[in-house]
Input
Amino acid sequence: MSAGEAKIPEFVLTLEGDILGEDTPENREIVRRIHACVSACEGISTEELEAGIIKDMCRVMAQVVPLLESKGAA
Output
């Protein structure tokens, strides 16, 4: 690995949430992010995630929220 190259995190996350491998603040932050993503996607199938449902939902929300806000201001 060269001086400017970032080290790729190497660890295993168990089903219980334990980190097997190097226990570093960076790895803990990655595990925290994974946990947040899994929790946020509860009820959404893997196939839907792979098909881009989150991006689609964000696009729809970007269109709908301004309409709802303008209705509320009227």
Summary: Strands lie at 11-13, 19-21. The helical segments are 25-40, 46-51, 53-73. DSSP finds three helices and two strands in the chain. The longest helix spans residues 53-73.
